[in-house]
Amino acid sequence: MGAAVLKQQLVSEWAGAWEWPARPEPETVSTGIPEIDAATGGGLPRGCLTEIVGPASSGRASLLASILAQATARQEACALVDAEDQFDPTSAAAAGVELARLLWVRCEHNAEHALKAADLLIQGGGFGLVAMDLGDTPPATARRISLTSWFRLRRAVEHTPTVLLAIERQQNAGTCASLTLECARERMEWSGARATSRLLRGIRVRATSTYRRKACSPVFMVRAI
Question: Rounded CA gap, 139 and 144, in Å?
Fold first, then answer.
């Protein structure tokens, strides 16, 4: 048997034998904002880390409230790891969050404790959503979180039905995040005449979504409460 024939026979017999099976697409859940759900192909992926980043007044807190409201409406247990103790239960309830289904973990301005708490909650299981709010943590402190810590969180949430969120001013998780939503304020909208009293109707926000190497920028309105 010639070498060329032998090579062809081996290739035909072993074709595909060394291919890794494709990872199934993760289940997604709604954010409560149709524009973002459409841009991300269904919303937030379960078993993955999602970053929500943006400066103050960029809509990130309103987006988080919408996500929590959707999750609690699905009767899921949720956990909010609050690194800087900035969560406002009254505003959250007004946005539709069922507080009875939300575990609020206060970390007293300690980002390291926030990471440990999020890790323990994921490992313990039972939560449909675990959100770690580092939005008011100083950027220099957030940048000191090692990539190893982010990788550990990503590995912990894999193969679970939990949605893991990290809310920050800047991207820090890098490739450990499967989805990144970057919020930026576009403009404020008012009602009433400029010469007299005016009421804030809301803030128009653009969220740049990066998921599966695709990027898009839906625009949505954050209504004033």
Answer: 9
